[in-house]
Amino acid sequence: MTARAKIHPTAIVDPDGQIGADVEIGPFSIVGPHAMIGEKTVVQSHVVIEGKVTIGTGNFIGHGAIIGAPPQDISFSPERKTSVEIGNDNVIREYCTIHRGSANGTATKIGDKNFVMAGAHIGHNCLIGNNIVIANNCLLAGHVCVDDGAFLGGASTFHQSMHIGRLVMVQGSSAFGKDIPPFVIAAERNYVFGLNVVGLRRAGFSAKDRGEIKAAFKLIYLSGLNISQALEKAGTMKFSAPAREFVDFVANAEKRGICPLKRGRDEHKEF
Asked: What residue spans define the domains of the chain?
């Protein structure tokens, strides 16, 4: 430990834990021997950090959060060496749970500048990118991958091993077991309702790129072709990088497939 950390006298911090400068650890929190907490990170009260957990700089961890607990995997063996890796400048609010990896040598990974709201669960081996909002009481099963800039609405659930694309907007109280392509609005149970046009504009996508993403969306969802046929046609087209990202995501969603389009709502006026 470093003498420059501010540790409440009721906190239990193992002397082998590595605590950076200007870290604050609140009352009744527990930090295990394999924890590494980067400088200027705030850990509030009643937080438990156990197992091998690496936390970067400038993070905020709210009251009652549990980070690094064993995965909820009946095949898991306690002797396995698994971990949690958290980047910089994340906000992890009250009572979130983040479980460490399951298979030996694996990790649950969270990038930078994410906002994980109260009560969210991030299961083992999830891969969370950067600048993502995971709203209250979202539940992510094991091996869920979330790409940069996504917004997951509160109380939504996500099946194991699914993939959520970049800048996806998920409506609250939804549920998914299929992959969600980048740049879309997703809601209800495994449905897509259109493109996240506002999100694309806010993210600085040019009119040209937005137009090509729209064309790729129409090809996949509105051309009347099946996915294989649409992808074959896409292979003959010269898309911009973001539109190609959309097409490539669909091509790689072989395990779970992609959420289908639900027609007949106002969201489709753009199409």
From this structure: 6-161, 200-270
How many Å apart are CA 249 and CA 269, to the nearest integer? 24
Question: Which band of pLDDT confidence, cut at 50, 70 and 90, is reported for residue 265?
Answer: low
- Compute the C-alpha angle 42/46/49, nearest 5°: 70
Its pTM stands at 0.96
Fold of 200-270: Udp N-acetylglucosamine O-acyltransferase; Domain 2 (1.20.1180)
CATH class for domain 6-161?
A: mainly beta
50-54 long-range contacts (CB < 8 A, ≥24 apart) are: 51/82, 51/83, 51/84, 51/100, 52/81, 52/82, 52/83, 52/84, 52/100, 53/83, 53/84, 53/86, 53/100, 54/83, 54/84, 54/85, 54/86
Token pair 């930078």 is at which residue? 112
pLDDT in tens, 66-91: 999 999 999 999 999 999 999 999 99
**Is residue 216 within 8 Å of 226, Cβ to Cβ?**
no
Residues paired with residue 191 on neighbouring β-strands, in sequence order: 187
* Residue (of 10, 6, 87) closest to 45 by Cα position: 10
| Secondary structure element (H or E) that encloses residue 31, with its range | strand 30-31
Alpha helices in the chain (DSSP H): 197-202, 207-221, 227-234, 241-252
Per-residue burial over 169-180, b if 16 or more Cβ lie within 10 Å, else e, is bbbeebebbbbb
Could you report the per-residue pLDDT of 223-238, keeping only the tens digit for each?
Answer: 999 999 999 999 999 9
CA-based end-to-end distance of the chain: 58
